[in-house]
Amino acid sequence: MNSDPPHSDETEPPVDADSFKERLWRLIFLSDTPAARGFDVVLLWLIGFSIVVVMLESVESIQLKHGTTLTLIEWILTAIFTTEYALRIWTCRKKLRYMCSFFGIVDLVSILPTFLEVFLIGSGHFIVIRVLRLLRMFRILKMATHMGSAYVLVNALQASRSKISVFLFGVLSIVCIESTLMYIIENGQEGSGFTSIPQAIYWGIVTITTVGYGDITPVTVLGKVLASIMMLTGFAIIAVPTGIVSAELSREMQAIRPDNRNCPNCGQHGHDPAALYCKMCGQKM
Amino acid sequence: MNSDPPHSDETEPPVDADSFKERLWRLIFLSDTPAARGFDVVLLWLIGFSIVVVMLESVESIQLKHGTTLTLIEWILTAIFTTEYALRIWTCRKKLRYMCSFFGIVDLVSILPTFLEVFLIGSGHFIVIRVLRLLRMFRILKMATHMGSAYVLVNALQASRSKISVFLFGVLSIVCIESTLMYIIENGQEGSGFTSIPQAIYWGIVTITTVGYGDITPVTVLGKVLASIMMLTGFAIIAVPTGIVSAELSREMQAIRPDNRNCPNCGQHGHDPAALYCKMCGQKM
Amino acid sequence: MNSDPPHSDETEPPVDADSFKERLWRLIFLSDTPAARGFDVVLLWLIGFSIVVVMLESVESIQLKHGTTLTLIEWILTAIFTTEYALRIWTCRKKLRYMCSFFGIVDLVSILPTFLEVFLIGSGHFIVIRVLRLLRMFRILKMATHMGSAYVLVNALQASRSKISVFLFGVLSIVCIESTLMYIIENGQEGSGFTSIPQAIYWGIVTITTVGYGDITPVTVLGKVLASIMMLTGFAIIAVPTGIVSAELSREMQAIRPDNRNCPNCGQHGHDPAALYCKMCGQKM
Amino acid sequence: MNSDPPHSDETEPPVDADSFKERLWRLIFLSDTPAARGFDVVLLWLIGFSIVVVMLESVESIQLKHGTTLTLIEWILTAIFTTEYALRIWTCRKKLRYMCSFFGIVDLVSILPTFLEVFLIGSGHFIVIRVLRLLRMFRILKMATHMGSAYVLVNALQASRSKISVFLFGVLSIVCIESTLMYIIENGQEGSGFTSIPQAIYWGIVTITTVGYGDITPVTVLGKVLASIMMLTGFAIIAVPTGIVSAELSREMQAIRPDNRNCPNCGQHGHDPAALYCKMCGQKM
């Protein structure tokens, strides 16, 4: 998301600087003035509020009681987000690029369903629209772009990405083979949930990740022995991704802290970044 | 809790030193004499005992059998805690500040319900009082202030607070989006527990934290596939907070081992144990 | 798998170099030309595809609908894998060694069941054959040999193998003793799943690994207390394998960064990157 | 267990060295000759075998089929262990100390039940005896004394003991308070398992350790919200013990590796413990 080309393009101001359009663009797309930051905060609260509304609409009892209120709120929020979308297109220079960018599509998708409902009502597409409305949830990702201190985390995750991929592939291989064995052992037993290999793999993932729903459990003695081995494997294996991220984070944190200065007098290194004098010979640095 | 202003105020002795009131204040609020430490220990055991009594009272079979005994014990404990509360107010100089402090309110709340029961009996408020009585459980936090070796832990947690917040926000975003997708897939299926988005989010949290109650489980094939992806995500993600705390703790422990020397010239601390000169002013140490 | 003698033997080319047989051998067994790498990639996709087919065949509804299509695909895949197996034997110099190696047997086992089905049909061995067909799943391991960046992981796991064994033995001892106590407490209670000690140990493993199916749960008060203690033990214990792997990985990563220099005099490796002289013979490096 | 005084006393040989008794004592209590090591290995296998027999006896179907065989095996094992116990007492100098030591009592308890069964049969104490027989399981701990490479693990656990205690106390406090709130919210609801505070605490421990049986689950909306918060707390908290052990293990491993030698020529430190020459100046060490 950091180097998303459409976004970096948006940071170029429109040609006629200092105009109303330019100030609007600065307000909407940047966060370098108090007003722009205020605009961002208000927008984030509105997004959070709209997500809560979408959630509440899915609860039948609330829908029955407060359905009209929720519809009203939805129309108001849709009006606000439509205005925001229109302003974004108007002020932005590379309009098509914004409209085709990930957040451009999310912005469009989050206002569309309310309008579609009016045109398509009674035509039987009601469920499809309700589903579309839920895509609004993706706006939550917009909030993520406003978290400053996430760099160390993201860096550590990116650095350990290839190792975690290898790890996940290894886990899936183990799950596939052990689940197939479980299917051979358990299939055909009365009350067994191991009706097919995909089902057994679903059980295997539920088990090795230690989620353990209990909707499918082994019923034979041999199945229980194999399941026990699998759980202990998972128990030992769960250490691996943790170890990877932990080691990466330690390195990441150490890489941020110390400086590379050597003492000009005695050559001692490993100084505190804030140190003014060499800790071994007292030479000013 | 460490720098709670009301508490630091209480450490100021009353004006007439060496009087009975001053000695009582020292006994109750401080822990610097054997007698004061003994007072603390006795109080902690009484608190622990009173919590056990509250718990046992909630078990119906015990309440029926030993109800009168428990009521008697409760009255005795209430009498002791009332005396303690009265003495705290009497000896403390800034009485209002203590009464409005967190532990002042906890102390009051833990004695009030027993008295209220007498006045309000038969008036239908019985359940409310029973609930109030449970607030006594918060006294358990008083015990926490007596654990000396918790500093490294608390420091590591505080240092990684912002990173853990970002992490939790990220997890909640993933849960929201994946749960909404699960709701779209599973809703309407027979025997499905995904009746609303909040319900689906509850399922999502149960799954991604690997708790896995099994009260709500996917029933469709697509739902199981998505749930499997979510579990593996959670499996890889669980490594992140561990890595954060682990890396912070490693740093914290290394930071403690170093010496406690302060520079005799500028008072700077946090020197390398092998340092010969102050890193900030060059003074020989 | 790294030092599997049959495989290292296969890397010796047949006597008459540059012949068609030699080029075929190079294509099949090595990965040093673009063509050979392409061959590997195609084979991996075919293996993945055949595994998906095996999985789908186990789903009854799919078997009923698309049974003939799946059988056709299976015959095509079997033909391809048979050709591959024949070419491997023809081009390989030490034929017997390849055929007795792990992957040689896996290759044979994955083509055999389809042929067996023709000869043994109607003879009641049908289920045995279906089971044999599933052994094809082991081909997934062939994919693992193509993951380059798995070395750090595998090294860290191997380095911590003895510690993880000790840890697993300790966990099993705790589980055995606690499960026996649970059996003593819970056995004979109505609705209790603790019908025997092995059953109790199965419960113990499900609990201490935090999988928690819920198919067997304590019903007595004492049993719940003991189970709670066991869970908290497991909660504290889960830290141990993570700590081991994490510490090993940290060391492994630091150990990789250092240099690959060997002493020109004695061949000693594993030097400090800053070392100027060999630590074993004093030779200048 | 390492510095158990009775055991260290046993290492003193009886007065008349080189006699049969002295050689027997050396065979049984020490492990410094091939014969003594062989004795240990045979004993460990017999203990493992006797534990399996105890387990199988608890399975009703096996008890019905092979009951007499198991009784026979049990008598043979009891005879062997009785002989071992008698020899231990005979050869050991400080007999009373051995008999009162932990393993002395375990040894006695593991042979007693078989004899008691003969004397007390038909007197209704049958169940008590069966329970006593299970105490034999504690012999598994004897195996633990033969694991050499467990030192780093045990040291790391001991070093982090106080921190893990503080952590467990903190977790229990949170569980107590949150469980009480859950009891207030959920109690009285139809189908709710939160019938008392101890029950709620059991649920709390099942949840925060991510075991999640699902035998007790929240049914109200507020209860589900609070449970979600608790799970996320547990998810973030699970990192703490891991971080502690991980940091301790890292330190433990680093503490074992390097030596404290300084080069006699240039004073350089941080050498490989196996180094023969200084890595910076080539000086023989």
What does this structure look like?
The structure is a homotetramer of 285-residue chains. Chain A folds into two domains: 20-141, Voltage-gated potassium channels. Chain C (Four Helix Bundle (Hemerythrin (Met), subunit A)); 152-252, Helix Hairpins, CATH 1.10.287.70. Chain A is built from 13 helices and no strands. Helix content of chain A is 68%, strand content 0%.
Helix vs. strand class of chain A? mainly alpha
Which spans of chain A of ≥5 residues are poorly predicted at pLDDT below 50? Answer: 1-11
Number of domains of chain A: 2
The CATH architecture assignment of the largest domain in chain A turns out to be Up-down Bundle
**Most extensive interface between two protein chains, with residue counts:** A-B, 67 and 59 residues
Q: Output the helix-strand order of chain A.
A: HHHHHHHHHHHHH
In total, the number of strands of chain A is 0
Radius of gyration of chain A: 28 Å
Indicate the multimeric state. Answer: homotetramer
Average the pLDDT over all residues of chain A and give the rounded result. Answer: 75
Query: Which percent bin holds the helix content of chain A?
Result: 55-70%
The total of helices of chain A stands at 13
Tell me the span between the first and last alpha carbons of chain A: 40 Å
Please report the first level of CATH classification, the CATH class of the largest domain in chain A.
Mainly Alpha
Q: What is the fourth-level CATH superfamily of the largest domain in chain A?
A: Voltage-gated potassium channels. Chain C
Sheet having the most strands of chain A:
none
